Amino acid sequence: MPYGTLYLIPVPLANEAAAKSFTPYLVDTINSIKEYIVENEKTARRFLKEAGLTTPQSELIIHDYGKHNRDMSKADFFKGLQAGNNVGLMSEAGCPGVADPGAEIVDKAHRMGIRVVPLVGPSSVLLALMASGFSGQSFTFHGYLPIDKLLRAKKIKELESQAIKLDQTQLFIETPFRNNPMLEEILKTANPKTKLCIAADLTAATEFVQTKTIADWQKKVPDLHKRPTIFLIYHGNK
């Protein structure tokens, strides 16, 4: 029996943003499958309902891939796929596999010879890059920077150097409740001419995206506490 297909299903980045986040094909897909591997079951079930799921949720098989259930030796995640059933993979928000532990599921699926199909949906990294005005030809996403202040300041200087040397946009994130200390460190460490884009609450009603030089940001510093944010650094030569 041929294996099923693993569908990578993006989840909205913000509450009340479902209508901005799914396509007719995504809706058709979720109504054709009854098994999911998810990072957050509550988030996943809410999204399926908002997206127009017609299958009773009591009939769904939900595999919890939260931080306490990531033992890849467990075969339960793949039994349905091996039996020929299509399965959906969902992150807590955004695209599965992008800054997301679901990449491990996708990697194993490839090694098992399972077909992987990514669906169109919101990615905070790409949305921020699109809106920044920075280079979209060459960019690097670094995930989280070091928590230690000295190491973090050193890393910020490294990113500035890479932006200049490679003409490359540098993207990174921070845990939302540590955004303000991160921004404070950037404004203290970076060159006044370096360009910084702050993209917060993407797709939400409170969305905030602005690009300024470090010198201009220092004149008025936004409050980013507990607001999901992408930081982007680019050189000030353009």
TrEMBL record:
GO biological process, one term: rRNA processing
Residue span(s) of domain Tetrapyrrole methylase: 63-216
Record keywords, A-Z: Cytoplasm, Methyltransferase, rRNA processing, S-adenosyl-L-methionine, Transferase
UniProt cross-references to CDD domains, sorted A to Z: RsmI_like (cd11649)
GO molecular function, one term: methyltransferase activity
UniProt entry tagged with the keyword Nucleotide-binding: no
Name assigned to this protein: 16S rRNA (Cytidine1402-2'-O)-methyltransferase
